[in-house]
Amino acid sequence: MTPGNKLFSNGDLADTLNHKLGQIANAVAGWSENDLLTLPQADIYEALTARFVIDPIVLDRNGITAEPIEDSFMATRHFGERVDVKVTTVTLVVPITGDQPLLGLRPNHHTPNPPTATVRSGELRIHWSGPVNPSPGTVQQGVDKQLNEIQQWLDWSTAQVTAYNEAAGQRIISEVQASKERALANRSLQASLGFPMRKRSDADTYAVPITRKKIVPRRTAPTSQPFRPEPALDERQYEAALEVLWHQRNQLERAPTTVAKMGEE
Hints:
The chain has helices spanning 13-22, 24-29, 33-38, 41-52, 136-193, 235-254, 256-264; strands spanning 5-6, 58-59, 65-66, 70-78, 81-97, 116-120, 123-131. By secondary structure, the protein is α+β, with helices and mostly antiparallel strands.
């Protein structure tokens, strides 16, 4: 006996994936021409991928924990009469990742009887119920059977999701490129007409912010050294220095050869 809800029984996976794939064109058409032409193409791909790519369900069998074992009564039919039978229930909590709505969608490959479990946020609860005082081997065998059955259905589901993700990625690229080419063609046509573009009434107005650098005056730090005036010549010494330079210039002009030999020596 395996209490819980039937998985993969709330819709067809192929129909859901096909419908989602058909929404990509409308999603790309919702982007403005300005964004398509100015934003980095990788950013556009990333935004659309986050919206349309689906993460398959993955069971974390290494992270399984057990709830406290409970004894309860379960109604059954015995020779046409309702009988309450005492049973032992073991509940295992299996962490899961991925898009949980996949657990309700039936894959293309399936068996007549889908597995059962209780779905909660980020986890799957596997229930095993049987006669009281069961052996550990009996419980382990029953739980493994349920886990393997669920994993088989997930493998079928993942195969479809993987194929869808590849198709979605290719369609996103083709739709974005086609929309960008149409936007460029529209801009080229607008420019060739020679008419100024009319500003839309709902267009945002942007102002370039001006940041002026604040100049902070800085005072020279006072020094503890006593003041020393810079070296200077008085007027008589200055005139005498000029006279020496004047005579030296005349000598260079009158006898340049002599001066050159003096330099060689």
